[in-house]
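[PROTEIN RECORD]
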Amino acid sequence: MGWYRIDPDTGEPLKEGHSKLSRPPDLVLLNAVPGVDDDAAACYLGDGPWDMASTMPAEVEAVTGDALTLSDEQLRELLLRRIVPPGVAGSQSEIGARLLQVADAFWRDIDSCYEDDWERPARPAEKRWVCEYVIEGRTKRRT
């Protein structure tokens, strides 16, 4: 799986983010390597979280059906703050409860991906940018 060190403010890969792994002078390893490139302040995004984020729009739509369309901001609020959209009759409704279950399962899977490689859960900045992957993926599904 590929991991890239990112700027936590922009989500963009860092130009100087290539691996510290020893290598011949003519080989540049662009991916960050767990166990080698660990840094207490570094943030990473990678293929695993991106793959999981790409399926999230369909999972949300499976719960809401045609009855409810979440805006980008409502989806962010659901995923990042566990806030059910106002169009749902409170978090106790069947749809609201199911949306929270889907969001919680998503973050457990994302944290598991980070735990497997980095031996820690996803950091807040990483979660914010994984969430943006979800929004971007949903936008692409609609076009």
